[in-house]
What we know:
The protein has helices at 2-24, 28-46; strands at residues 54-65, 76-87, 91-100, 103-117, 122-127, 134-139, 145-152, 159-166. It is globular. The model is unreliable at 1-43 (pLDDT under 50). The chain has two domains: 2-46; 50-166, Porin. The chain contains two helices and eight strands, in the order ααββββββββ. The termini are far apart. It is of the alpha+beta class.
Amino acid sequence: MRNKRIFIILTLVGLLLAACQPIFATSAVNASAVTATTALAAASQDQCTQATLKGRYLFADSGTILPPAFGVTEPTPGADAGIHTFNGDGTGTNIVTLRVGNNIILENVTVPISYTVNADCTGAYDVLIDNGPSFDLFIAPKGEIIAVISTAPPGNYVSGIAQRVSSK
């Protein structure tokens, strides 16, 4: 059975290479020009700016909170849900409900945020309250989806995906 799968995979690779052969048959000069042009076009399309994050993004995360985050003294389940609103200029707000263990710590609370976006579509945001959490961002090139992971406070192990639901 394993040999049959390997044979099928090798056959598919061979067919793929055969189908692409006319593309690779162009002269070296033309191939270089096409490759350079394609690379430049791809690079310009995949670069991000603060304006890449604009609109409302739904999020919901759950995980284990470790001491000393949020005052817990032992590993404790935690969850949050809400809306990130990015204004396209490095500012925004979060509306969030946060549960730590069985206790609702925040409920539909609006907090200000600031964020940065790098050209490689990574970034960070900070919640602008005393001892507020910080997060790293990994942004889809058009800004429609972001992956978020907590970087502070120590013990805050939240990570998740947020999806844009509105550009306003």
